[in-house]
Amino acid sequence: MSLIHDTSTAIQALRQLDSVGLAAMICDATGIVQLVNSAADALFDEEPSQLEGQNIFEVDGLAPLRKMLVAEQPQINPEMALLYNRLHCLIRMQRIGRVGYIFTFEDVSELKLSADRLATALNTVAHDLKAPISAVKGFADLVRNTGELNDKQEMFLGRIFTAANNMEGLLRDLVDITWLDTDKPLTLEPVRLASVLQSALDILANHRTKRQTDIATTIANDLPEIQGDGRRLERVFVNLIGNAIKYTPVGGSVTITLSANDSWQIIEVADNGIGISAEYLPHIFKRFYRVPRDNDGDDKIDGTGLGLSIVKTIVDRHQGDVTAISEPEKGSVFVVRLPTSTAETPDD
Ligand code: ADP
Question: What does the CA dihedral 40, 106, 77, 182 come to, rounded to 10 degrees?
């Protein structure tokens, strides 16, 4: 394909995008802006042709494009980025022959603003609901202390506790999800995974006692501190170990191992529980995904389908990874790797 042919195709493509109001720009492989359509000029509030001839590596407002250009990966899935400090855009990048790259920009600032407002409102509601739910649990506990209860009363109280605990779990997941969706930065500090594990085990102590789960921990000697967000990493442990307890029949075993190699600290949470079939395994980290189970009656296992997606997002934000191996009726192993030195990816 000749360069001229490529260029004329590119100009044509830009015109077509202009006719449907989609902002687009073409850069060569070195980042020099070749063409900008009028929808993009209007979006960026630039004079016509002002950007042409400039290198995007030197235009402050377009910093996120550099990262995409350097990675040279076509962005079939759009990337969300803040341009010119005010425009939240969904950006796609495609290679076009030898001309370079075409970027398209979809302004979703209004949507982002509404989503942020909704997240803030949800967060406030979740926080406000915590107190009444604690009150329900507190008064239910007091009923137990007022005298002997018959079996039926005991059963009803048990149901009140289960419902209140489920509501607390749902609220906790909602608060986590809204935090993740509003792109709040991690609070990085030196963290010892062994201490984070201990506080997660404290949080889960009742759950573990109720399910009579045997938990064994193996912690390698002298694990160095990592840079991490302790509160969020505690959530990773709580969700993984909580699941291991929940999806393992009463009296089951959970084994937690902390180890390290040159680059990673490795958390392994293994159980001998109900496991997950191969067909469902690829989906478990998706938001709201729950493995379909036969038992939807009284003994169904409660959950929101958010726990593992929260784990994955927190681990991703630490530049780590999480994987699962599982076999139905045998058990599951979740492995999290966190880099020994962690920093959130800078914007450019
Ligand atoms: P949930 O609130 O449903 O537990 P998660 O996102 O934590 O949501 O998990 C998603 C699904 O993955 C669960 O519904 C469950 O079917 C499966 N799962 C997670 N952990 C385990 C485990 N340790 N053993 C078996 N299944 C698991």
Answer: 130
- What spacing in Å lies between the alpha carbon of 308 and ligand 1's midpoint? 7
Any atom of ligand 1 within 6 Å of the Cβ of 176:
no
Cα of 206 to ligand 1 centre, how many Å?
19
pTM for the whole thing? 0.72
Query: Both tokens of residue 52?
Result: 């042409």
Q: Measured in whole angstroms, how far is the alpha carbon of residue 13 from the centre of its chain?
A: 35
Pocket test for ligand 1, best of 308, 325, 327 (most atoms within 8 A of CB): 308
Is 169's C-beta closer than 6 angstroms to any atom of ligand 1? no
Range with lowest mean pLDDT among 154-163, 179-188, 277-286: 179-188
Which pLDDT tens digit goes with each residue over 167-210?
A: 888 888 888 888 877 777 888 999 999 999 999 999 999 999 99
Dig out the tokens for 82 from the structure.
Answer: 């803040």
Q: Which amino acid is at 309?
A: S
Region at 4 (left for phi over 0; alpha for psi -120 to 50; beta for the rest): alpha
Which amino acid would we find at residue 330? K
**Which pair of structure tokens corresponds to residue 152?**
């039926």
Q: Which residue in 212, 117, 223, 123 sits closest to 173, CA to CA?
A: 123
Angle ∠(37,95,7) on CA atoms, nearest 5: 55
Q: How many angstroms does the Cα of residue 173 sit away from the middle of ligand 1?
A: 14
- What DSSP designation does 259 have? E
Torsion of the alpha carbons at 81, 85, 87 and 92, rounded to the nearest 10 = -30
Q: Which atom of ligand 1 is nearest to the CA of 248?
A: 24
> pLDDT per residue over 85-128, tens digit each?
999 999 999 888 777 888 999 999 999 888 888 888 888 888 89
Nearest Cα residue to atom 21 of ligand 1:
243
